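thought: fold this chain, then report.
action: predict
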Amino acid sequence: MSTTTLGKQRPQTRPQDDSFWRGVLRIANRTFLVGMTLGSAALGGSLLGLAVSFRNLPDVRSLRGYIPSETTHIYDAKGTLLVSLHDEENREVVPLDKISPNLKLAVMAIEDSNFYQHRGINPIGISRALVVNLTSGRTAQGGSTLTMQLVKNLFLSPDRSLSRKVAEAVLAMRLEQIFTKDQILEMYLNQVYWGHNTYGVQTAAQSYFKKSAADLTLAEAAMMAGIIQAPEAFSPFVDMETAKQRQQLVLDRMVELEWITPQEAAAAAQQSLTLGEITSFQRSRSPWITDAVLQELTQQFGREAVIRGGMRVQSSLDSDLQNMAEAAVQRGFATLQASGIRADQLALAAVDPRTHYVKALVGGVDYNRSQFNRATQAMRQPGSAFKPFVFYAAYASGNYTPDSGINDSPVSYRDGMGRYVPQNYDRSFMGPMSMRMALATSRNIPAIVLGQEVGIDRVIEICRTLGITSPMLPVVSLPLGAVDLTPLEMAAAYATFANNGWQSPTTTIIQVTDNSGHLLLDHTPRPKLVLDPWAAAATNSTMQSVITSGTGTGASIGRPAAGKTGTTSSERDIWFVGYVPQLSAAVWAGNDNYAPLGQGATGGGFMAPIWRDFMTQALKDVPVQDFTPMSKFQRPKPQRRDSN
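observation:
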């Protein structure tokens, strides 16, 4: 909390000497001394007597460690604000020396001009309120000081009973014994409600005038001070005429106190004001990824800390890529509909292989209709897009290269209580072929055979290494994608292939700080080598053939790229997952109710072009980079095959 003395904070229009503040003290002391003469001793004695009856009041010493709830802000990777998260109170805390002197004076002028002279209560104000209340027969005025208003906001109910007012007075005097005037004023200005779910001077200044509290002019400060008493009714967003009247009231009071000159007041009243906008509860610019960021933050810190903790979160989102991804999804969905493919949803996830930062997420075709994020939450079968994990396992065993031969011939295996007889998509068999051709043409039999050769448990182990956490059963059909996982899991797993086996934890967050800049979470990439580099390079080489001469030719983007199509046998899910060294992306389409998409729905026919559309835009200004060839790495020694 700032300990800067308010007396040293002068409006920019004042000379840098003490004459102005001597004037402030002179006017305040006149009023204060009169009040003391009229009966401050009697009033103080009464309050001290009543204080005995308030032994159960809150302990104001607790404010020594008080941290008000504060808004958390989420930004994209370049620092653009995406969304502000808060519960009931939208607030950003600032120290007193970061608040315009104009505002400090304006608030004191209209709310408590004797603030720096009294000890928590203002006898003149209370006496005046007492007369008004007795005359009207009800509690019409409160005579509250800023200190009394602060303790009311922090500790007491909003009722206007006499006992509540006495409690305010007692707590205010206690508070003044513990904290300096500057500390109390700082707490008040950061606590006070300014309307439209906006709390504290900094958030209010940004909302009303799109500027920091430190930069408020006299005109702006007077208007903000004028609306404190009834912020929803006096707000310039609601009634500018009333707000101007309140502004003039504050300026007149400041002239009366000789805190500003009549000329300064006239200039402020004539100043043209540019309003901002109501900032509370606004929708995120990129809700799909900010939802994912919020989920990750909540897992790390808990919801209460996120909503009330005033965090500054730099997400990994690239807003340009996000816009491209959303546009590509919309264009792709329109194409699916026009082609008779009965899909009601489409999702996309993009990950940077070098950092494993999530760069773009699109969780569906219309966030307004459904906030379920299919990119991070939809558990769907990947079909043949799962096969590269099996091929990598084969290469990592040292027993296979992309040119090794394998048979596409009928096989059967005991699986559970019966026998499993796998079939290719076209129900045919092509006989002997290379590993490269087997993956490029997406033959099922070779993938099943390889799964049995390397062991299903080994395939699952590799998937876990790649960050896939979805449940997996060690069934014979696993190599054909008999598992439910998310598009983000697929994009992140393929990203490790793209980075030659190097991997950092996949995340939507780069770093988190508190409102003072202290680091709370740091996700600077610290890649670890988790795959065999030669086997990863062999997988990359094989998957390039999918695009150049296989089922994924529709994904060709005019530069080295690798990927894999995916189509489930029931035609409920279609995929394309692919990558270049700088970006990995997964695209999926299907129905939320798992209804079939219709005959002819394939990943190669419909998802590959959507992937190409996105990647072409995303890589427009990215230099072409080839994959590291297998020759740069040492091939693992062949492992002895266990006999079945």
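thought: worth noting. The radius of gyration is 34 Å.
final: tokens above.
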